[in-house]
From TrEMBL:
GO terms for molecular function: DNA binding. Residues 45-97 form the Cyclic nucleotide-binding domain. The keyword Membrane does not apply. Keywords: Activator, DNA-binding, Transcription, Transcription regulation. Residues 154-229 form the HTH crp-type domain. InterPro entries: cNMP-bd_dom, cNMP-bd_dom_sf, HTH_CRP, RmlC-like_jellyroll, WH_DNA-bd_sf. One of its GO terms (biological process) is regulation of DNA-templated transcription. Pfam families: HTH_Crp_2 (PF13545). This is Crp/Fnr family transcriptional regulator.
């Protein structure tokens, strides 16, 4: 009995489920499942295009292959960003329901694979694996929202420094220089201000101070950051 409990814990523990049913593996599960095989359709959007807005899009789930999407609410206030391997439309599985956010393409081009939501729902309802994949996705969203709340409680300089580092690593590009990351040019100072719930002038002043201290530098309005220095700075904060 004890051995069986240990085996069950290993199989269904939070850590085990998160590892076995990651969002990266979900894509493979969708297309290779032998009982309810599903195929997606590749679509390309251009900069400033809005997705998940028409009736047909409301019943779709998108896997981002390449590009950056911004999520806004209440008069274009930026609340989140999405990029390669992220999934849009999977949180709300009600058919025909409006999207809570407005999703707009931020990069020059966005490449996605579109799946019919009803096909995904069928997989989730009829397979144990499908349930776990959706569970992990929702847990990831809750964890992300909790981290965002923690971010908004940080002091101003720490808040902006943390966003610079995290956005640089996720959406930016590495350079030929050691530890130097190029901040994504698509994300403006105004977007950083909205995301961090700060005044744009405050963001500008902090960025100028970080530049004076050697943590970041600019070339033709592009922001470059020293990843090692910023990590050290954030470690001192914490």
């Amino acid at each position: 009995m004890r051995q069986k409990m240990i085996e069950m814990n290993n199989l269904y523990s939070e850590e085990s489920i998160t590892s076995q049913f990651s969002e990266r593996k979900f894509r493979q599960f969708i297309e290779t499942d032998s009982i309810f095989p599903t195929s997606g359709v590749k679509k390309i959007f251009n900069r400033n295009d809005t997705i998940l807005k028409s009736n047909s899009d409301l019943n779709a789930i998108y896997f981002i292959e390449e590009g950056i999407v911004t999520a806004t609410i209440e008069g274009e206030v930026v609340v989140d960003f999405y990029t390669t391997s992220d999934v849009l439309g999977f949180s709300n599985l009600m058919l025909g329901s409006d999207s809570f956010y407005k999703y707009q393409v931020l990069s020059d081009e966005l490449v996605v694979t579109r799946y019919a939501k009803e096909d995904i729902i069928e997989k989730i309802i009829n397979t144990q694996e499908g349930y776990f994949y959706h569970y992990v996705h929702m847990q990831n969203r809750v964890h992300h929202m909790a981290k965002k709340e923690e971010l908004l409680r940080l002091p101003t300089r720490q808040r902006i420094s943390k966003v610079l580092l995290e956005f640089g690593e996720k959406y930016g590009e590495t350079t030929s220089e050691k530890n130097i990351i190029s901040f994504p040019k698509q994300i403006s100072k105004g977007m950083i201000a909205q995301y961090t719930n700060l005044n744009p002038n405050t963001v500008t002043n902090v960025l100028q101070k970080l530049q004076e201290e050697g943590y970041i530098y600019t070339i033709k309005s592009a922001i470059y950051m020293d990843k090692s220095k910023l990590e050290t700075k954030l470690a001192v904060f914490s």
